[in-house]
Amino acid sequence: MSTLVMKNESVEPSAIRAWAEKRTVYIELTDGRIIGFPANRFKLLAAASEETLKEVTLRLNGFALRWESLDEDITVPGIVAGNFQLPYNVE
Question: Are 39 and 24 in contact (CB under 8 A)?
Fold first, then answer.
């Protein structure tokens, strides 16, 4: 008789691509999901111009988003978990 042992290994999500459109920041994850969040969920991003938002780059092998001109870094696992600085406001 054989026994099947299943491991519950969780892998932190990382991004393979990031971009911004119409004040929403999007990330494409290694598992194929695409997640977007409003820029107004973070203080510095809320005040940034549309052009500045588009300057997003990936850092730390896809585990962080970076806006150099804002000196702002946001972790991808934090975004996936829904950890935002500011509450969601319907405008």
Answer: yes
Q: Where are the domains of the chain?
A: 15-81
Dump pLDDT digits (tens) for 20-39. 999 999 999 999 999 999 99
If residue 59 lies in a helix (H) or strand (E), which one and from where to where? strand 57-59
Q: What is the pLDDT of residue 10?
A: 63
CB 75 within 8 A of CB 66: no
Helix (H) or strand (E) holding 50: helix 50-53
Q: In what order do the strands lie in the sheet with 24-29?
A: 15-21, 24-29, 34-38
Q: How confident is the model at residue 1 (pLDDT cuts 50, 70, 90)?
A: low
> Closest Cα to residue 54, out of 86, 19, 26?
19
CATH number of 15-81: 3.30.2020.40
- Find residue 65's DSSP bridge partners: 58, 74
d(CA 53, CA 70): 9
